[in-house]
Amino acid sequence: RYDLVCLEGISRALCAFLGKQDPLQYTLTYPQGGDEDLLTVTISQETQRVRPFFACAVLHKIKFTPMSYASFIGIQDKSHQNIGPFRYEARAPTSIAFAPPSWETVHTARCRAHADLQIG
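^ that's the sequence the OP posted. Answer follows.
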């Protein structure tokens, strides 16, 4: 649950659990341009075999403060460490190369997973 990887999300979930705040209610809306504005996410058959479920969202009309923007980018960076935007594929960790914004060098997914295990 990516809402629990930031302080704001943990605080909101805890307040809802303790009954101090109502859980957030989200509204599903259709794009203003109709079908022409819909985005498509393609999931390969190989990925479907190992990850049979997928979910995503597009946010509109969000107002950020400098602090909330930094938190949002941090969550986005965490969510994209293993998947890229608009593509969701299952590949061997050694065949995936990437360089997140906070890194200066390109790494493989195997290298990153190993680093997380060492740090965590």
